[in-house]
Design brief:
single chain; 509 residues; alpha+beta; five-stranded mixed β-sheet; 14 strands; 57% helix; rod-shaped
Amino acid sequence: MYIFNIISLYLIIIAIITVFWAAYIKTLNGSSFTNASMMLCFALCFYVLGYTLELNSSEPSQIIFWNYVEYIGIPFVSALWLTTALLYTGHFSKHKIVLSVAIFLIPLISFILRYTNDYHHLYFASVGFTEEFGKLILVKETGVWMYVQSIHSMLMIFVSMALFIRDSVRTGVKQRGKVLLTIAASVFAVAGLVLTQIKPFGFTIDYMVLCLPITALLVIIAVARFDLLETKSMARSRAFEYSGNAVFLINRQFKVIDYNASAKSLLEQLHIRIYNTNLNALLKSVPQFLEGMLHQEENLLQLRLDGRTHYFEITTRSIDDRPVPRGWIKTVRDITEIHRLNEELKKQAITDELSMLNNRRAFMQIGREWVDASEQSRESLSLSMFDIDYFKNVNDQYGHPAGDSVIQDFGRMLKQHFGPDTLVARLGGEEFAIMQSGKNDDQVRQTLQAFLEMVRGNIFRYRSHEIRLSVSCGSTRRQPGQTLESLMRNADKALYESKAQGRDRLTML
C-alpha cells in the first residue's frame, strides 16, 4: 500500500512541475517550437495525472475512466517530442504536411482505437483487474495495434535523440553535457517502453509513466542549462516582436529559427518563401542579401523593391556574452530616406549652390584623382581657367541679382559645351575651371575658342536688360610629376596673361 502512495506522490509532484513548465514555456513566445514544447508538457501531464488517479481509484468504472484520460496524452508524447526536435534543428520547414502525417497518424489511430477498443480489441486484446498490495489494478493484454504504437514511439524517440546529438556535434562549440543529457533522457524513455512490455519484477504497473518524468526532468535541465528555449526567450526580451525593422534569429548553424512580421514582409517583397530555414538556401536568389547577413560587422545592403532602389542597414547582436554565442539577432533596417538625405547633403557640400557646378572643394578632391590617374596612365590632362570679363560692372550697374543670374547662365553654358566627360567647377566669384582628359593641344584649343565665341555672341537676359559679356581663359597641359596645385598655378598664370593682353582671349602655356 505504501509503495502506491509513494508512486502517487511522485507522480503528483511531476504533474505540478509539468504544468508549471508548460505555463513558463507559454510566456516565452508564440513560435511553433514553443507551442510544440507546451503541447508536449500537456500530453505528459494528462498521462501522469490520469495514471495517478487510476492508481488511487477503487471502483473498476473509475479505473477505466482515468485510463481513458491517460490516453488523451499517451499516444502523443513521443510524437510531440519528435516535433520539438524537428522544429529546433530546422528540419520541419520543408514537407510539413508529409512530416505531420508520418508523425501523428499512428498516434491518432491509437487514440481512436483505445476509445473504441470494446468493439474490436485491436489495442488491448483484453482488459481485466487484479489485486496487488491491497489495490485493484487494471490488467491490459497487449493487442496488435499496441505493438505498432510502441514501435512507432521507440522510433520517434531514437530519431529525436539522433537529431539533437547531430545538431550538438555540428555546432562550433562542444556541448558534451547537452549530448549526454539528451542520450540519458532517451534511454529512460526507451527503458520505460521495454519494461512495460516485459514486466521484469512481476508487478502490473506502467513503467513508462515512471520513467517519463525522469526523461522530462533531463529535458528540462537541458532546456534550462543549454539553449533549446533560452535563445528564443532572450531574443524576444530584446523587443523582437515589436520592432518595425526586419529581425531574424539565427543559430550557430546559420539557420533562421525565428523571425518577426517585418522580416516576413521583406522576404515576400523579394519573392522568397520561407520553406527552408538554412540561410544559404533561403537567400540564394539574392546573393548580396546573403553576403550581408553572413557578415558580423555592420554593413549596407542595396536592393530593388517595387521598381525602386532601397538601402538597408544590417546589424548583428549576439544573444549572449559567450566567446562563441548561441546565436545572433540580425536586424535589417530600411534607411532609404536617411541614405538619400545623406547623399543629398554630400552633394550639397560639394556643389556650388548658385551655378550648380562642382565647388572648389569638389574640384580639388576630384582634380587630384584625375591627376593621379593621368600619372599612372600617362594620358594627357589639361586645365583651363575662366574669368568673366568686367563682371563687377554687372553687379554695379544691374545689381547682385543680375550678377547671380549671369553666373547661373554661364554655369549652364559650361556644362552644355564641354559635356559630361569634363570636370567643370566654379572656384569662386566669377572664376571657373575645367579639366579635360585625353585631348591634344589642338583639340583643347578648338573647344576653348568655340566656347569664347559662344559667350561673346550670347545675350544674358535679366528682366528687361540685355547683357553682353566676354570671358578670358588660360590653359595649360600637365607635365609628368606635376601636382594639381602646380597645374593650377600655371593655368592661373596663363589666365593672367589673357587679362593683361586685353581680355576676351585664350592663352595656352
